[in-house]
Design goal:
Blueprint (H helix, E strand, L loop, with lengths): L1 E8 L9 E10 L2 H14 L9 E14 L2 E11 L10 E10 L2
């Protein structure tokens, strides 16, 4: 597995505490796991829609400090081969995280 990303703080004028982040993750399914799936398919008749190979995720977030006690962070993710195989179509995730401090 490999992952990395960049964060940039203060992208917008007057929003010095806000942070834009872009992250990527790549996970390769092990040879042993792929071999087990092939054996299950060929020997035991297990029906796999697709054998596992890898998963890739691209994520973009923007952490917005609205008040000293409120931070909101929208999140967008694109996943290629979710679950590690092509059996499931690519997926998009939209999320929103809110942090309250009191």
């Amino acid at each position: 597995m490999a992952s990395g990303g960049v964060h940039y703080q203060g992208l917008l004028p007057g929003r010095d505490e806000d942070t834009l982040a872009v992250r990527v993750v790549f996970a390769q399914v092990s040879r042993d796991a792929r071999r087990q799936q092939r054996d299950d398919r060929d020997v035991n008749g297990v029906n796999y829609a697709a054998l596992a190979d890898h998963e890739f995720v691209l994520e973009v977030t923007y952490r917005c400090h609205l008040r000293p006690w409120l931070v909101v962070e929208p999140d967008v993710q694109w996943m290629r081969h979710p679950g590690g195989s092509g059996a499931t179509p690519d997926a998009f995730l939209l999320g929103l995280r809110a942090n309250l401090t009191f």
